[in-house]
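Hi everyone,

Forwarding the result from last night's run.
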Amino acid sequence: MINDKLKGGIYVALGASSYGMLTTFVKMAYSEGFNTAEVTLSQYVLGAFGLLLLNQFGRKKHSPLVKSTTYTAIKLVLAGTSLGLTSVFLYLAMQYVSVSVGIVLLMQSVWMGVIVEMIIHKKLPGARKLLAVIIILGGTVLATALGQQSIRVSWAGIGWGLSAALAYTATMYSSNSVGLQFPPLKRSLLMISGGLIMIIVIFHAHINLDFSFRIFLRWGILLSLFGTILPPILLTRGMPLIDMGLGAIIVSLEIPVSVLMAFFLINERVSGLQWTGVFMILLAVVLMNIGKREPVPK
């Protein structure tokens, strides 16, 4: 059991770290002249293709899959549209803000999720969750440099980042409630397909003579691997081996990984106050989830 729990934690940590690398790769693609349409389309087209191949191989290797219904499959595709919106909004924010600020804005989905939970269950959150929300908001003010006059704040970037957090909240809710009887790889494929459809709807006008298909080989493989293929595989393998509280804490590794990747690869500087804000948000995630005891499947 100890070995399984350790293995699950490693899988979840690697999945979160994969997501954490994504925003830095997007920044690097932007620096080479690629735009949001090219970045998102290459990621989702190659990601959907990769997951399709994995589903085909998995179907041959594993036991017969649970019979799916067209209605549930359509619901998963529709749920995936919010995943596509998350990427679009986050990558638009990356045009205006740093990687560290972008990932902090995306993590506002933590307190947005608390509000969604309160609305659905019609019950006020406990004192510990309320305290965590306050810590997150305070940490966000520091991490986004809102209180530092020497740093220029992009309100457009903050707006797109908060929109990404809202879309991500919808994605997290739907991924935890829709089509749970489907195999993880099939669920991932259907949701990524929904995201791809949404991205094509948004950026169809950009697929013209000016569209640089070089993005598929230059950055598309990396973006799809770390953004749409590896994370669902690693997280769906790791999460069943550990309890949800510990899983949520480990997933928050995405924040420091993003900041460190940006520091080492694109020399993005983060002030001491911003680091304080980042650690406050991590503390809030731990506060919300520590002490949760959910049975781990044996």
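Confidence is low (pLDDT under 50) at residues 294-298.

Cheers,
N.
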